[in-house]
Input
Amino acid sequence: MTPAARLSAAIDLIDAIEEQRVPAAKALKEWGTAHRYAGSGDRAAIAGLVWDVLRRGASSAWLMDADTARARLLGMLRLERGMDTEAISNLCHGERFAPEPLSAAERAALTSRSLDGAPPHIAGDYPEWLDAPLAEVFGDDRVAEATAMASRAPLDLRVNTLKANREKVLASVKHLGARETPWSPFGLPSNSGPTRAARHSGEEDSSTAQSSSGRGLELGGLSSAQNRARCNHLWPGQAENAALA
Output
């Protein structure tokens, strides 16, 4: 499937989720079963679009000044994916399963509108009733905190030091947006989705493994490097805490 066709599929799925009141995970599974021609990469990309729209729905609708599946997807591409108007327009050309071309109103919204003036719960994509509790905890930072939680979490890669050092591995995973972390000599945080990273870490001679910041970035290494650090590490299913003195 082309990137444009994936957008069309995501719009259809979002409509189905809302009109039929179907859980998103079930809708995505049923779509994959009904569209066998879509490969695993297509299904993962479409799922990523759908989940991003659901997470950033309120702010995307505000940006586009419209509350439709198409409007929210276009707004998400601008807010969450950082795409400019021309990049979005290039995907919406109306040919061969692509979404219809941008209207004048959509182009104007993508170009000139922003979240300035949006209520905090809209800009932060959280229920309005949560505004007061979040304000108590985060104050004026509540929108930034909520936006960070609504965005896709970064994925961490852990270097297998039996096979390579971090510098060597970093050169091979630059395409995943990986970078060094100051918290561990073994960690390489990446903003790439888990599917792309899984393909890399699942290779036969891979020198990386998927991880999480709380567990996989070797807090033991952090503890030894910082004499005053206190690290409590529990297994999955239990609470994890890493507190620096």
Summary: The chain has 13 helices and five strands. The beta strands are 155-159, 187-190, 208-211, 229-232, 241-244. Confidence is low (pLDDT under 50) at residues 197-205, 214-245. The longest strand covers residues 155-159.
